[in-house]
Amino acid sequence: MIRAQNVTKYFGGFPALKNISFEVAKGEIIGFLGQNGAGKTTLMRVLTTYLPASAGKVYIAGMDVSRRSLEIRRRVGYLPENPPLYGNMTIREYLKFAARLKDIPHRQQRPHVERVLKDCDLWEARDKVIATLSKGYKQRVGIAQAILHEPELLILDEPTSGLDPAQILQVRRLIKSLEYRRTVILSTHILSEIEQMAQRVLIIKSGEILADSSIENLLKGPGGTSEDGRRVCLRVQGVRLDLEPAIGGIPGIKLARWASENNTHGIDLEMTHPSGDFNELAEKVARAGGRILEIKESKVSLEEVFLQISGNKDLSHSSRA
Ligand SMILES: Nc1ncnc2c1ncn2[C@@H]1O[C@H](COP(=O)(O)OP(=O)(O)O)[C@@H](O)[C@H]1O
Ligand SMILES: [Mg+2]
Asked: Does domain 226-299 have CATH number 3.90.550.10?
C-alpha cells in the first residue's frame, strides 16, 4: 500500500526526515511513535502529498506521490494535526462542504454525510455549530471528514492528543471500528496507545527510524533475537552464593538481574526457550537451599523497550500521559 524509499525532508538547512524507508502492507494498522519534534507530522504530510520530500520517493498504491497527488488524495483520508474546521458551520454543513471539496458526486453527498455522522457518533449533534463543540467532538468531526470518501488508507495525526480520558476512549473505539478493510497509520507520543491500537510500530527520533517492528516482537524484548523469549520474575530466600550458580546453570537463561537484600532476592530472568512450567527452576532453587516466595512470568513493557531503543530517559515521563 505504501512504499517509502530514502525519504529526506529539509526545512532550510534543517533535516526533519533523514533517509527514511519503510513499507506498509494493505490492511496494516501502524503507529508512528516519537516525541514532539521527531518528524511524525512531517512524514505524514509527505505521505499525503501536502509536502514535497527533498529527496527520495513515496509510492501509494503504486502511484508516485510527487506526480499523482490528486489521485492519491482521493484514496487517502487524512486527519491533520490541526483539522481545518470552520467554526461557524454546523457539523452537517461542514461535512457537506467537505464532500464537495472531495468531488463526491452530488447525489452521493447526502448518503455519505449521513453515513459518517452515524459512524462517528455525531448524528445527534449534526446541527450544532462547530465552534460550540468540545475538543472530543471536533476530533470526531475531523475523523468524519477523513473517512467521508471511503479512503483505503487513513492517516491520523495524533488523533487523541488534547482529549480528556473519556474522549480518548471514544476516539480510540471509533478508530478501531474503522479499521475494517482499511490501512491505518496513526501517530502518537503515547506508548500505551500504540500497544492498544496498532499491530506494528515505527519508532521515530530526530527524523530517523529507530525501530520498525510488530508490537508482538517488540514486547519479546530488546534485540528481539529469541522467538520464544520470556521473562520470569522470581523472589527467593536463601544464600546468594549457593543460589547464583544453581540458577545460572539452568539451560536457556540468557540474563539474570539480581536485587538482593540480606537473604531475600528479587531476580529478573530472561530465558531464551519456553518451558511450560517452572519445575526445573523450582527444583534447582530448592536443591541450593532456597525457598521460593514468588514466581511469575512477566512481560517486557513497551516503555522499557522504547527506553532501551531510544536511549532517552526523559521520554518515560512525558509518555505516560
Ligand atoms: N514548516 C516547517 N518549517 C520549519 N521547520 C519545521 C516545519 N515543520 C516542522 N519543522 C521542524 O521539523 C521537526 C519535526 O517536526 P514535526 O514533523 O512536526 O514533528 P512531530 O510531528 O513528530 O512532533 C521539528 O524540529 C520541527 O520544528
Ligand atoms: Mg506532530
From this structure: no
